[in-house]
Design a protein that fits this description.
Layout lengths: L4 H6 L3 H4 L1 H25 L2 H30 L11 H29 L7 H22 L7 H30 L4 H28 L9 H9 L4 E13 L2 E10 L5 H16 L3 E8 L7 E4 L1
Helix pairs in contact: 3-4, 3-6, 4-5, 4-7, 4-8, 5-7, 5-8, 6-7, 7-8
Length: 304
């Protein structure tokens, strides 16, 4: 087993813990996606088609999360992958954001085109299928909610299901309005509302994934605060080459060079630095290089 796998085993991994919930949500939404798409094509409802397209990205996103979990499990036995394949989760979230943006843009363009001459929509079948979609999204929402705060990939799927749940409510309202009043503009209007709801959340998800991929410091953490805290560790004379980044959801990592005073207790300094990073910044994995102050050129690397 590779040297980094002990850290992986200790790291928070929501996708692994909620694997069964992912599978259940994947199966349920897959079935309803097919039903919604078929009904939308038969009835001519753009709102229902947009909801089916949104549900497709739900299914695809959850499927990628499942694939990432499976790949990560296999990678744990590969000594050449010392950090496993945790970045697959982030790549899946980014792909999910791109696909969802494409669906939203298509729906908006098609809805605008329909405003000039809105087609008739068979409201009865749309209403029935939209209610079924709402029920499926509520169940999936409950299944995914526990892991949404721990994993960027699960958060992406969770946000999509939340948007899809609200979209189903919109489709139900549009179908009911058409059935009662024959106001055909309700269908493209709801489609536009769904598209506008999806886009900002999708962009935020994509931005979060990109921050991880470019190894930017976590948004919730100030690098200067980490620097100042390490500099106050007894025995530390200076801090340089400090880097903080996110490997995957819930796993922030750091590396730094610590210049120590002559005769300092290196073991005690490392223990104190480790405690400060863990307790104050929630950084469980760090690589610290100790440089004796009397001889800056002589250094020893210690990883923990």
């Amino acid at each position: 087993m590779g040297p980094g796998h002990d850290h992986q085993a200790a790291a928070s991994n929501a996708a692994h813990r909620h694997f069964g919930r992912l599978w259940a949500a994947f199966a349920l939404l897959s079935i309803l996606m097919v039903v919604e798409a078929a009904t939308a094509l038969r009835t001519g409802s753009l709102a229902l088609l947009s909801d089916a397209g949104h549900m497709f990205t739900d299914v695809l996103g959850i499927g990628m999360a499942l694939a990432a979990v499976a790949a990560t499990r296999r990678a744990r036995t590969d000594p050449q992958r010392t950090f496993g394949l945790y970045r697959l989760e982030v790549l899946a979230a980014l792909a999910n954001a791109v696909l969802l943006s494409g669906v939203a843009v298509y729906v908006l363009v098609e809805a605008v085109r329909r405003f000039g001459d809105p087609p008739e929509v068979l409201a009865g079948p749309v209403l029935v299928v939209a209610v079924l979609g709402l029920i499926a999204n509520i169940v999936a929402f409950v299944l995914l909610r526990p892991g949404a705060q721990e994993s960027i990939n699960l958060r992406g799927a969770y946000l999509e299901v939340l948007g899809d749940l609200l979209g189903s409510l919109g489709v139900i309202g549009a179908a009911a309005l058409i059935a009662l009043t024959d106001w055909w503009w309700a269908d493209p209007l709801v489609a536009v509302a769904i598209g506008l709801f999806i886009l900002p959340r999708t962009w935020r998800l994509g931005r979060a994934a990109l921050r991880i991929l470019v190894q930017a410091a976590p948004e919730h953490l100030q690098v200067t605060a980490v620097y100042d805290r390490l500099a106050t560790v007894p025995g530390v004379a200076g801090v340089h080459d400090l880097h903080v980044w996110t490997l995957t959801s819930g796993m922030d990592v750091a590396s730094a060079h610590l210049t120590v005073t002559p005769g300092a207790d290196v073991g005690g300094i490392l223990a104190a630095a480790r405690a400060a990073l863990r307790e104050e910044f929630h950084i469980e994995h760090a690589t610290l290089q100790v440089e004796p102050g009397a001889a800056p050129g002589a250094c020893g690397a210690v990883e923990w």
